Amino acid sequence: MKEKLLALGLTAEQVEEFMTSEVNNKFIPKARLDEVISERDNYKGQVTKITSELETVQKSKGDVEELKTKLNTLTEENTKISAEFEGKIKQMKVDTLVNDALRSAKAKDADIVKPLLNDFLKDFDGQNTEALNKKVAEITSNEKYGYLFEKAEAKNTSDSQKGWGFKGVAPTDSGKPGTTGDSDPFIDGFKSSI
């Protein structure tokens, strides 16, 4: 701009005076303009960065909500599975106790006798085995269901009722009247000859 004013025929002093009084008061110097543009660009960059971070946070907020929902769902499923597992363990324990009680009572077929215990087992928690044994004893002693259990046979010590065994003389008896079977005449004779 100075060159144009000088070309119009103004002196260097007049151009300088015009520049300092008129132009500098009404226009921003280039250095200051560059500084302001740099600051503006810096702020635009910060705004862009903050906007990007805000979008990321908003997306992650949705992700967090989604994760919370998934976590709640998994927690509910875990609670349900744990309850089912506890129920199965309890049922296995009860089944084992019932089978042991029926085996002790000599049930011929436990699967046939178990339905007779259904009402009792509804409230049975597997802790009171005495009550279970009493209930099994009731069923065992009931005439209607007695055929479901093996009967204990009365044991008699006589040889004829044992079913089989040696009858007659004991192998150590000599067979001679008056001998107790403690000595054998052949062996006694052999002993005396030696």
The CA-CA distance between the termini, in Å, is 160 Å
Specify Rg, calculated over alpha carbons. 56 Å
Q: Per DSSP, what share of the residues sits in E-state strands of 2 or more residues?
A: under 5%
Average pLDDT rating: 78
**Helix fraction?**
55-70%
Description:
- This protein is mostly helical.
- It has one domain (12-148).
- The chain contains seven helices and no strands.
- The mean pLDDT is 78.
Summarize this structure briefly.
With 194 residues, the chain is an all-alpha fold.
Descriptive tags:
mainly alpha, 7 helices
Set out the fold topology.
Elements: H1 2-7, H2 12-26, H3 30-104, H4 110-113, H5 118-123, H6 129-141, H7 185-193
